[in-house]
Amino acid sequence: MYLAKIYVTLKPTVNDPQGLTIKGGLHTLGFDSVQSVRSGKYIEVRVDISDRAKAEEQVNEMCDRLLANPVIEDFRFELEEIKS
Amino acid sequence: MYLAKIYVTLKPTVNDPQGLTIKGGLHTLGFDSVQSVRSGKYIEVRVDISDRAKAEEQVNEMCDRLLANPVIEDFRFELEEIKS
What we know:
Chain A has 84 residues and is an alpha+beta fold. Chain A contains 2 helices and 3 strands, in the order E-H-E-H-E.
């Protein structure tokens, strides 16, 4: 059993209106040191696979097919073994 | 200058309909090994502060006041120094 911690971020060249809004909010609250904000998604997926390579392959395919939009987003993930 | 990588997740006891929807989608695509999915947010904030302790304090306050809802969400972050 593995826990995949998946990070999905917008590609650097893609506009991020949500990030800009957060940045504006932080400035309004007085956090003037904030230079830039990029927003993304964080997804934890628990998979019942005992082989690490197989789990990695499956999670990679999940990201490609559903969790990230490869046109505008990048993804990366870490696998953590869960002792059951 | 520091880059804060912030992870905001729902507290374990809080319902996560988005996670359930993703889980359903993954099952529909044939990923039967998926046991559970939890969704969250990933935010990168660049702060122009040279002192690490001060940056940590500021980012902590940002999370508390704007980025996370402390009633239903937990957050954690990592600081990475950026050489400019």
